[in-house]
Amino acid sequence: MSTDQAIPANPPLQTPAEGKHRNAHWRVIQFILQNLFGFWLGYRAVNHEALEQLAGGLVLANHQSYLDPLLVGLPLKRPVSYLARDSLFRIPIIGYILRNTYVLPINREAAGTASLREMLNRMDKGYLVGIFPEGTRTLDGQIGELKPGFIALLRRSKQPIIPVGIAGAFAAYPKGAWWIRPARVRVVYGQPIYPDELAQFGKRDDDKLLAFIRTRLVTLHAQAEAWRQGKQNYG
Description:
This protein has a seven-stranded mixed beta sheet with strand order 1-7-6-2-5-3-4. It is an alpha/beta fold and 235 residues long. It starts with a helix and ends in a 7-residue tail after the last helix. The protein has one domain (17-28, 49-228): Glycerol-3-phosphate (1)-acyltransferase, CATH 3.40.1130.10. It has helices at 3-6, 24-40, 68-73, 92-99, 113-124, 151-156, 169-172, 195-198, 206-228, and strands at residues 44-46, 57-61, 80-85, 104-106, 128-131, 161-167, 186-189. 36% of the residues are buried. Helix content is 36%, strand content 14%. The protein is globular, with a radius of gyration of 17 Å. Strand 3 (80-85), helix 4 and strand 4 form a beta-alpha-beta unit.
């Protein structure tokens, strides 16, 4: 049995409505971080209201720092379920937090169908599932090439995709940093991309599909960066 199967994930959802309700752990952490990031990072987000109406979906965001999963979920009234290395679940305090904040364990060596099925299952039952298609944090603040591993998830999912652009997190907590620096952080949520829009990309069009998704992320990141620099105002 693979390691990611051996580590218990969160209890399966029973109805789509349950995927829209945050548990007490999520609410407490969210409240603390909303105040902390609002003060230290000047955190602001826009266009996230549309996510509240979706039954489920796949959130795709650019990856600037370890803060990104928190930054994406911070303004939402529903939880986002992410993937994390299964080894993290064995660390006493961190593992407890992960198990109680909808995180899915993944074994990078033996992962595959089990994690894919669980992500699809969660989306179908009402969750927003979040992933970072670059696969790793940026080294320069810009969006790198997307890894093709998430294409199977796009093609098998019946739920919409929500692209998200993050700006400022790289300045606040770049790769290799030991502390979170004060910086202005902005997050811009894009319009959902529905399965019928993705249907134009055939099985041999993976490169075109990756380019399509990357273009959306680059556009949103640029909007977030312009907002961060005061060149664009969302009110």
